[in-house]
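Lab notebook page, bench 4
Experiment: in silico fold of construct C2
Operator: M.H.
Input chain length: 175 residues
Purpose: comparison with the prior construct
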Amino acid sequence: MQRLISSILFAAFAFLTLSAEDCGTQHFIEDSGFDLWCDEQLCAWEVEAGQVVQTPSWHKDDYAVEFVGDSVVISQLSVGARTTCLRFEVLADIDDNARVFLEMDFFDDGVLDYEEELAHVRWERLTFLVGTRANWDSVRFTLRKEGPGRARLAQIEATDAAACVGDPLEVEDHS
């Protein structure tokens, strides 16, 4: 009986995994939960300025990254995927004394192509749709904090979306 239950559970898991893969959703961010830490630093994110620490989030079993200090910058380069519509989501806790920005540098050429300030929220999911022309092959995602207030982020994700509204960003390789 135990073997039958195990077989059924394995088949269900395999079906769900294959079904999810069949959707064709591209994921552009590694470590979408800020769960991978190498000693005291994020493994998949580069800390360019300031300091980050692992901290509890809205749920006791889910951790977040806290930006410590008045000026903190982390980034991650995504290479090899393309889409004409990026869906960016993050679970955020940002108080009124902090400003946090999502920035995107397509082609990682040092030219900022997109910037959006995240709202002051208490553990709410923020979503942005960013339309682009499909001529890029890499994008650097940057999260930048300014000010003395608290800023904590969890469950960050960037995926391709079905459709964006408005004019797409014009992005060029300036390298």
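Observations: The first strand starts at residue 37 and ends at 38. Helices lie at 2-22.
Next step: discuss at group meeting.
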